[in-house]
Design a protein that fits this description.
The complex is a heterodimer of chains A (292) and B (483). Chain A contains 11 helices and 11 strands. Chain A is of the alpha/beta class. Chain B has helices at 61-78, 83-99, 101-112, 116-137, 141-144, 168-181, 196-207, 222-230, 243-253, 278-290, 310-322, 342-357, 390-393, 409-416, 432-441, 474-478; strands at residues 24-25, 27-29, 32-34, 41-46, 51-57, 158-162, 185-189, 215-217, 236-240, 259-263, 269-272, 302-306, 361-363, 380-383, 400-406, 424-428, 446-449, 468-469. Chain B is globular, with a radius of gyration of 22 Å. Chain B has 2 domains: 24-264 and 466-481, Aldehyde Dehydrogenase, Chain A, domain 1 (3-Layer(aba) Sandwich); 269-459, Aldehyde Dehydrogenase, Chain A, domain 2 (3-Layer(aba) Sandwich), CATH 3.40.309.10. The termini of chain B are far apart. The chains are: A alpha/beta (292), B alpha/beta (483). The interface between A and B is large, with 34 and 48 residues.
């Protein structure tokens, strides 16, 4: 029997379909949350302001084409993501548990729920407009309708926990409705989101449509708020950081949705109903004359 | 074509309805008109004559406290009023606006300066329609926006609403109707230069016995608006106005739990393809930029013309511009009325000067006589405009059109989207497939194909990007007033 020493993996960022290290060269340890001083279980890149800018650039470059593709195609791609995540269910359960504090059964139900949520949003991509768009019965000789479009580039700041379900609950509405996402994974356990990053290319999510950063939310909320090419922010964050993000509205009128402290990611309806799309979609009303 | 300067003059056709205007108006708080705590007043004038119309109370911090607490008190019973009963009050308001339509139109024209043709045919009927439409929503909210718990959708609470001077009554209707339909109460501030129709609406609200405090209307300038926005008793802020003030409001609301919707400025493109019906398109250009003297947030202020028809479009536009009748807004034949205020006129003139200074070519009709008093600006357009010119980038809010050309549909879209704003756009082409594809590619909240400046309470209106967020009208508009 040969001896197998575990490999302490260093996880990298996911930007524009590639897996770069942080340009800053920084890495941060992922530790067991129950032992602050314990040995690192893994390392993750610690993204800098420049990494954020690169990710936004990649997202912007990819967004138009993603929005122009049919809802049917986006739906198939997101369903494929669910298929591939399901194939890596064991990895995801281990990853959710890696930092401790989560029982095996809680981890299993979080992962199953995250996969189900992905399946649910795969279905939304060609149905949102059936539910919240449609023809407006105006009093005049016009064909008038409202279509729903992705807002553009969306920054997501995921909650510390649930690390996987939180990240996906905030990212999926944007992806399904045609926006490109720059997501900041849970700071204490970024590993599940990074497994999603590994699933993304195999699901045919086009490069740049989903970008995943790891690092410190406290460090990155300022640059996210100030970035003028981010169209919307969805963030599970409290206190001063929440205010920093809201002040970003004054930069370029970006849409900001702060998730309340009482958010329960394990409930289904609040996360999978049409309200999930509020901050990440635009209503476009088109009028056309009618007559012979 | 006939040169309009050689044809006979129109006989004057002044609107004859007389409107009673009181010498002074107090604040409308808790169902009563009252003098301001500040004991301060300001004058509102007729911008077409510079004559004072009335003096109006200026609300201070105490007055805003009182208005907010009156709205808070009214909220308790209003939000529990059965939805169909709420609806009946809104229907009553709609009816009274229709019945008093001519009076409201004349009053609006006197206070704002816009032609009676517009207030009579657009502002007032649309305001009535907005109340009528939203009245019907009251008992259907749970189908339109199901609450996650399956219960009756709830309003947000007390709404602070600050509206501009370009469509004073209509903007009051756009703000009040959905707020009330969703079970909110409001504190609304009309603009300081155009308070009279909102105060007349307050009289209507009194007349129809809306429970006291459900709607409070307070007058004042920017400082009064700031006090409303920053008041801790406000749950939701709805603002229509400039992007500059919108940013200040967003900053003030950061870190609070206040909900916010902003309907801000624009620099909207109006795209004319060579295959468009050019005569109709020229009429569309006129309506897009010179309606309401161009003081419209969604005005088509950037004209993009396909190069092959540029000369034809400019020739026809010039002829049409010369035939516009500018003058007494109460005359039913008037096309172009007065600019709303001396401040706004100065701003418009500054931009016209910048346009010429930066090298673009100013075109107006010097033969158009302007009345001796009042604030007047001839409709005009600039040719030779570059995308980097100030008049092609900044919102002027006046009858000033910047004309540019394009060669391909891709270039038209690129130029159209070359702005931080995204409120509206016009697309003129006789090919439906092209119209809808261009509409898809333009980043703006409202796209008019072969028409411009159409509004309807069932059609959501609002901006992309720096034109603000949230929608007004239709099912989407209700979301801005639901918890």
């Amino acid at each position: 029997m040969s001896q197998h020493t575990p490999i302490t993996k260093t996880w990298k960022l996911f930007i524009g379909g590639a897996y770069p290290r942080s340009e800053s060269g920084r890495v941060m340890p992922v530790r067991d949350s129950r032992h602050d001083s314990g040995a690192a279980l893994a390392y993750a890149a610690q993204a800098s302001r420049k990494d954020l800018r690169d990710a936004v650039e990649a997202a912007r470059a990819a967004q138009d084409r993603w929005a122009s593709s049919s809802g049917y195609l986006r739906g198939q791609i997101l369903y494929r993501l669910a298929e591939i995540m399901d194939g890596r269910r064991g990895d995801l359960i281990d990853a959710v548990r890696v930092t401790g504090g989560v029982t095996k059964s809680a981890a299993r139900s979080e992962v199953e729920m995250a996969i189900d949520r992905t399946v649910s949003f795969a279905g939304w991509s060609d149905k949102l407009e059936c539910v919240i768009g449609g023809r407006n019965p105006v009093a005049g000789p016009f064909h008038c309708f409202s279509q729903i479009e992705g807002v553009g580039v969306v920054a997501v700041v995921a909650p510390e926990s649930p690390s996987l379900l939180g990240f996906l609950s905030l990212s999926l509405p944007a992806l399904a409705s045609g926006s490109a996402v720059v997501g900041l994974a849970s700071g204490s356990n970024p590993v599940p989101a990074l497994i999603v990053a590994e699933c993304a290319p195999s699901s045919d999510i086009p490069p740049g449509v989903l970008n995943i950063l790891t690092g410190s939310a406290e460090e990155l909320v300022g640059p996210i708020a100030a970035h003028r090419d981010i169209d919307a922010v969805v963030a599970d964050i409290k206190g001063a950081s929440a205010k920093t993000l809201q002040l970003g509205v004054a930069e370029n009128l970006k849409r900001v949705r702060i998730i309340g402290a009482d958010a329960d990611y394990l409930a289904t309806d609040p996360w999978t109903g049409p309200r999930a799309f509020a901050a990440v979609t635009e209503v476009k009303t088109v009028w056309h004359t009618v007559g012979v | 074509m006939t040169d309009p300067s050689t044809v006979w003059e129109y006989a004057p056709a002044p609107e004859s309805t007389k409107v009673e205007i009181k010498p002074e108006y107090g604040l409308f708080i808790g169902g009563e008109f009252r003098a301001a705590h500040s004991r301060k007043w300001f004058e509102t004038i007729n911008p077409a004559t510079e004559e004072p119309l009335a003096r109006v109370a200026e609300a201070d911090a105490e007055d805003i406290n009182l208005a907010v607490s009156s709205a808070r008190k009214a909220l308790k019973t209003w939000r529990k009023t059965p939805p169909l009963e709420r609806a009946k009050y809104l229907y009553r308001i709609a009816r009274r606006i229709q019945e008093r339509a001519r009076e409201l139109a004349v009053l609006e024209t006197l206070d704002n300066g816009k032609p009676i043709r517009e207030t009579r045919d657009e502002d007032v009927p649309l305001a009535a329609a907005h109340f009528f439409h939203h009245a019907g929503w009251c008992d259907k909210l749970k189908w339109a926006h199901p609450a996650p718990d399956g219960g009756e959708p709830q309003g947000i609470g007390v709404c602070g609403q600050v509206i501009p001077w370009n469509f004073p009554l209509l903007m009051a209707a756009w703000k009040i109707a959905p707020a009330l339909a969703c079970g909110n109460t409001v504190v609304l501030k009309p603009a300081e230069t155009t308070p009279l129709t909102a105060l007349r609406l307050a009289e209507i609200i009194q007349e129809i016995d809306l429970p006291a405090g459900v709607v409070n209307i307070v007058t004042g300038a920017g400082e009064t608006g700031r006090r409303i926005v920053e008041h801790p008793g406000i749950d939701k802020i709805a603002f229509t106005g400039s992007t500059e003030v919108g940013r200040m409001i967003a900053t003030a609301a950061a870190g609070t739990r206040k909900r916010l919707t902003l309907e801000l400025g624009g620099k909207s493109p109006n795209i004319i393809f060579a295959d468009a019906a050019i005569d109709q398109a020229v009429e569309g250009i006129v309506g897009a930029i010179w309606c309401n003297q161009g003081q419209v947030c969604c005005a088509g202020s950037r004209l993009l013309v396909e190069e092959s028809v540029m000369d034809e479009v400019i020739a026809k536009l010039r002829l049409r511009m010369r035939s516009l009748r500018i003058g007494n807004p109460l005359d039913k034949n008037t096309d172009v009325g007065a600019i709303n205020s001396a401040t706004q006129l100065a701003r418009i003139r500054r931009f016209i000067k910048i346009g010429s200074d930066e090298g673009a070519c100013h075109n107006d009709e010097p033969g158009q006589a302007l009345p001796p008093k009042g604030y007047w600006c001839r409709p005009c357009f600039f040719t030779g405009v570059q995308p980097a010119h100030t008049i092609a980038r900044e919102e002027i809010f006046g009858p000033v059109l910047a004309v540019m050309s394009f060669r391909t549909p891709d270039e038209a879209v690129a130029r159209a989207n070359n702005t931080a704003y995204g409120l509206s756009a016009g697309v003129w082409t006789s090919r439906g497939s092209k119209a809808f594809e261009i509409a898809r590619q333009i980043k703006a909240g409202v796209i008019w194909c072969n028409t411009f400046n159409q509004f309807d309470p069932s059609a959501p209106f609002g901006g992309y990007r720096e034109s603000g967020f949230g929608r007004e009208g239709g099912r989407s508009g209700l979301a801005a007033y639901l918890a």
